[in-house]
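Pilot study result, target chain (112 residues):
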Amino acid sequence: MYYARTIKGNDFIAEAWFTQDYANDNRESNRRRTHFTWEFPYYMINQTNSLINGVDASNLSVIDKAELAAQGKVIRAYFYFQLAMEFQHTYTYDSSFPAPPIYTTLSLEVNR
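Predicted structure:
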């Protein structure tokens, strides 16, 4: 995701393998790039929600629980940031534009 985002800029041109990313025309909802950049962060968010739930239910000390849960929340926030970078307009474009949905609980359902 980082590399594809870098290729979309004007400062680095590598059209050999990422021609569609450079041209920014691989954005249709049925394309593999769009599916991957939507599904992978949500997969990782679900994994971090599992980590946070597991930490909360564990026999660890309060200090260890707080530290591990905080790390999980940072990882989860990082992947939401990646989603926002790909799918959200800037705040100055439209402050009421909806952001990608936020899930803070573990989901065992697969949406396809």
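One observation from the pilot: The radius of gyration is 17 Å. A full batch analysis is planned for the follow-on phase.
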